Amino acid sequence: MSDQGATATPSSPPPAPTGPPPKVTSRGRAAAPTASSNVDAADIPEFEHFGTVGPRGLPPLTEYLDIWDVDMIKKPDEINKIDHHTALYHSDFLIVRRGQEFQVNITFDRTYKPAEDKFAVEFVIGSNPQYSKGTYIPVLPTKERQSSWEGRIINKSDNVITMGITPAANCIVGKYHMYVAVMTPFGIRRTRKDNSRDVYILFNPWAADDAVFLDDEEERKECVMNEMGIIYHGAFDDIAERDWNYGQFNYGVLDACLSVMDRSDMPINNRGDPIKVARQASAMLDSLDDNGVLVGNWTGEYTYGVAPTSWTGSTDILLSYASSKMPVCYAQCWVYAAVFNTFLRCLGIPSRVVTNYYSAHDNDGNLKTDIILDENGRVDRNRTKDSIWNYHCWNECYMTRPDLPPGFGGWQVVDATPQETSDGMYRCGPASVYAIKHGQLCFPFDAAFVFAEVNSDVVFYSRKKDGTMQPVKVNRSHVGRLVLTKTPGDVTRRDITSQYKFVEGQCSAEEQTVLEKAEEFGCKRDKSDLPVADIDLVLPKLEIRVGDDFELSLEFVNRSNQERTVNTYISGSVVYYTGVNKHEFLLRDPSVKISPNSSAKEVVMVQSKSYMKHLVEQANLHFIVTGKVKETGHVVSAMKVVTLHNPKLTVEVSGEGRVSEEMVATVRFTNPFSFNLENVYIRMEGPGLMPPQFKYYSLITAGSSLTWAEFFTPHRAGSTRVIATLDCPVLRQVYGQASITIKP
């Protein structure tokens, strides 16, 4: 009988696993997991025996020093919070700043004897505290024995001593658990874990050794302590202002800011470096690649969230994120910047919101924004893809830059609006403002991108029928026209353009040096040497209300001794504030004759019915006028953004204006339009006055009015404001405010 070969029987693959994937840990890779949560805490034993416990257990310890009580001196009117500028934080815990001494009172069971008794105040942070990592710090009362934090006995009275503790100026920022430990011959015994003794330690711009030290008291008051901000928007020649309650001292905001770093899995031992903290937070404020705080939305459709124009402050956003662990809907650039500002100020990093008018976007460092014209000089919208934001908001924070050469510290740009990835994540900065101004674009982080935002050229190209393109005009001063921030201690605006760039268009030695330096690092400009047209084109400044008809008057100025004829194209479009075109509602092509050394005007009537049904939330109309001079072939051009003005809310406050005495804030609004407003939300809040409130109205008919009165009780003296916004799908960016001074 012959052998037969065995036949392999095919089998089904094993079933796919079901359920959640297993949690990946550091086991086998590291001796202990990386501490990356300020919420997790180590279990510190109440007694650590020096040797093996005997058969009779622990020996009696009654004759050795024992701790009866620890007073954290944490009330707002007590020395710690006053000296550390933290009295405004609405918190039951002790909040202090690093690099500066704070005090605690310790009550023992008997009089403390320095020669015999040994004790330490211990601070731990994170789940795996280690002395070498700066996450376990014992503070000793004698000069002979000191750790990285200094300690001293300030006062002794009977059984009570006052201990002075100075955290290192570069220590980790976050929430520490505090213990008092007494040494005995048999081991160390310490106080039980008590959350009421937790200590929050923040950055300290008042301490010279801290990396965020800012030696300007007015700037510190504004960029650390001020809760009420002004954010600039609108157009370069028609600047609008929006009030914002940063609310960095509100209840729960500090914990929410720490939770942002926890959600990013940022190692605890990196949280003392403001460079790393600011860069990590820049990534975490947007949700694109890490489930961060805010979801960006520029579409105009906000059904499943709050419209960016509706927010009045940061508190609701941060508390919602901390409690839900889900990104908050929705944001645009000023919301990102405002919430980021709250985060930075809350942790003690001096910061401010900055607005750049005509901000180049997504240029990849090539310093060019291209506008394509056809052979006749008309804008080819199908081929013109680049856009310039009417304005863009980012943040500046103040810190040293030991990673850069001397002189590049100070104000640093950080931007949470997701535009481009940096090292694989949507984030930007910190980039030295000094480096940007001087073209030193090799320095981290993202200096080239910010440089392009304020220095790009607008290049007009003429496209021939064969597809070739030739530059016909270059505008080197349109982008980065104006950079604004709030003036410290005032409600006026401050022009800081000169901190970002030298005066443009004067071919100064400084400007030329900057451009040459930038080109060394890859930022190429258009160097076309184009003839200058002898015709100037001027567009007027316009202040128009939503729903108005208006005249657009173009002035052509002939600087030559000969008559000129300009074949002109006038284009008007509804655009998002990012410069992205939504709908072209106007197109005219007049031919204009100008006598020698004189001017001529061309007036175009713009009717509201042509633009109203296409308006988006910030009601921007963008006019581009291009023309070709018949006699010379030169191209002239001008661009104008017209921001239509919305109606205002009227906000009034009545009452005595005293702490703990009830007052009333009243919001009034009249619908001035011939159409109804539906699904209307009104929001109101005020720092030191009232938490965020909102009211919903399903319908406000044409011509009708509403009144909303809200009672509140001030809990803090000083000057402040009540701010309110109105928002609905067909009307955004409506707001009002009332200033008030609360007496003690």
Automatic annotation (TrEMBL):
Disordered: region residues: 1-43
Catalytic residues, chain numbering: 333, 392, 415
Signal peptide range in chain numbering: none
Amino acid composition bias (Pro residues), ranges on this chain: 11-23
The protein's enzyme class: transferase
Cofactor note: Binds 1 Ca(2+) ion per subunit.
PANTHER family listed in its UniProt record: COAGULATION FACTOR XIII A CHAIN (PTHR11590:SF42), PROTEIN-GLUTAMINE GAMMA-GLUTAMYLTRANSFERASE (PTHR11590)
The protein's name: protein-glutamine gamma-glutamyltransferase
UniProt source species: Anabas testudineus
